[in-house]
Design goal:
Elements lengths: L2 E6 L4 E8 L4 E8 L1 H4 L7 H23 L8 E7 L3 H18 L3 E5 H12 L7 E6 L4 E8 L2 E6 L6 H11 L6 H9 L24 H13 L4 H26 L6 E4 L6 H13 L4 E2 L3 H4 L3 H13 L31
Parallel strand pairs: 1-4, 4-5, 6-9, 9-10
Antiparallel strand pairs: 1-2, 2-3, 6-7, 7-8
Helix pairs in contact: 2-3, 4-11, 5-6, 5-7, 5-8, 6-8, 7-8, 8-9
Bound molecules: 5'-O-[(R)-(carboxyoxy)(hydroxy)phosphoryl]adenosine and zinc ion.
């Protein structure tokens, strides 16, 4: 049995957790920064980095105290080393290095996307490799065949915005504030998903890539027209995202008969309408559907600790001079997608 301390600071959550190799979560804490960023309608990188500096060390202390453990009890320290907002990533990684050095413990530099990708195995011990993963968050929208620890085949990515980004921008346009995803979902409950005929970018195309920029522009025009109720705009937007995710995932499922299950992870997986539609899709393809509990879908320290535990078990640790990486694709062999912008 090994005990791993995990640190996460790549976006706007400061988080730490203690997880063991038996999948026990001994303690976990997440400090959000919603109030810090709300006045700006989105995450401000410099504000995020400073907030991580203030909050990470106290959170680590609290997590150790919650579990009644000290650093001496920990076998390794896992910290997100990218991809993400570089200031925040540096805070978490430097903290991880300092703790590892001071306590004489190994460091494990975790790819944040690997944290999301392996988190379903923390929640569900029966989930075996390989599985098809839909990773939908504020920064990423990808379909990956998870073949093993450190072995990922990227089948698709977004050629422009991530799904969560589209939710956040739509929320801003609708005056629903930040963070956008939960606000859009809440308001959409009172709306008609068929009220506004939004486009479904790339639906029907042969490769399962995603695109949300055109949908966002359509929301801008629909809001400007002044012809629609906010709940109808929210519900119609959400339905368009659901239809895109389902159509693209369907192509990927057909391409991966070897997948043992269809799995969703990332913050957008917290959306009820999306979870329901994905559950139906998996059933139609005779695959078990696995979705981690909501708190494990959004950024947290337990997923980093668990990815650390999986890497540690595979003998993978890192030297203290490993750099923080703002971009870090999970599948380095994946070809660049035509039309792709900044997303890894
Ligand atoms: O995984 P995550 O916590 O951070 C990233 O790594 O990006 O995902 C955050 C994203 C945000 O864009 C947020 O708006 C979205 O997940 N999100 C949701 C919901 N809850 C969070 N999107 C739609 N519906 C939700 N209920
Ligand atoms: Zn994330």
């Amino acid at each position: 049995m090994t005990l791993i301390l995990g640190l996460e600071s790549s976006c706007d959550e400061t988080a730490a957790a203690l997880v063991d190799s038996e999948r026990r979560i001994l303690a976990h804490r997440v400090a959000g920064q919603e109030a810090d960023h709300a006045p700006y309608g989105g995450v401000v990188p410099e504000i995020a980095a400073r907030a991580h500096v203030d909050r990470l060390a106290p959170i680590v202390e609290r997590v150790l105290a919650d579990a009644g453990k000290s650093l001496a009890d920990v076998d390794a320290i896992a910290a997100t080393a990218g991809p993400g907002l570089i200031g925040g990533v540096m805070v978490g990684l430097v903290t991880g290095k300092a703790l590892a050095h001071a306590a004489g413990k190994p460091l494990i530099a975790v790819n944040h996307l690997e944290g999301h990708a392996l988190s379903p195995r923390l929640a569900d011990r029966s989930l075996e490799f390989p599985y098809l993963l839909l990773l939908v968050s504020g920064g990423h929208c990808q379909l990956l065949l998870v073949q093993g620890v450190g072995a990922y085949r990227r089948l698709a990515t977004t050629i422009d915005d991530a799904a969560g980004e589209a939710f956040d921008k739509t929320a801003k346009l609708l005056g629903l504030g930040y963070p956008g995803g939960p606000a859009v979902e809440r308001v959409a409950k009172d709306g008609d998903p068929k009220a506004v005929p939004f486009p479904r970018p790339l639906v029907g195309s042969a490769e399962p890539h995603f695109s949300f920029a055109g949908l966002k522009s359509a929301v801008v025009r629909a809001v400007a027209s002044g012809q629609h109720r906010t709940p109808d705009l929210a519900a119609s937007f959400q339905q368009a995202v659901v239809d895109c995710l389902i159509d693209r995932s369907r192509i990927a499922l057909a391409a991966c008969p070897e997948a043992s299950a269809f799995v969703v992870a990332g913050g957008v997986a917290a959306n009820g309408a999306i979870r329901t539609a994905l559950t139906d899709l998996a059933a139609r393809h005779d695959k078990p559907f696995v979705a981690p509990p909501l708190w494990l879908c959004t950024d947290n320290g337990a997923m980093i600790a668990w990815a650390g535990a999986e890497r540690f078990a595979a003998g993978l640790t890192d030297s203290l001079d490993i750099p923080a990486r703002p971009r870090w694709p999970l599948d380095p062999d994946a070809e660049a997608v035509r039309g792709a912008g900044v997303k890894a």
